[in-house]
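Entry 14. Structure prediction run on the chain below.
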Amino acid sequence: MNDESPARDPIAEDARIDSLEKRLQAAKEREEQRNRPAPGTGTDANYRMGSKVLSELVGGIGGGALIGWVIDRFANTSPWGLLVMLFLGIIVAFRNIIRISNRRPD
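Output returned:
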């Protein structure tokens, strides 16, 4: 067993020390609450945002290229429909990525 005596005798407690301990405990609890990550933040939220940005980029460029290819195929305007729609797809993708990055976290 432990042969050391406690730091202070529990019978002869000082009210000031008890008050200080209570305030320290309350401060520790407030600090833990303040430092606790908010729900919806953290690693999972970052992965979701990264996936959303990647899908917007790939979707905008791929969608623009597909629509441009279809326009070129039916209108026989090769390669101008593809180039114009690819350029518009890139613009739309970057606009959506900027909107995502400017959103405040929930």
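Residues 43-102 form one domain.
Filed with the rest of this week's runs.
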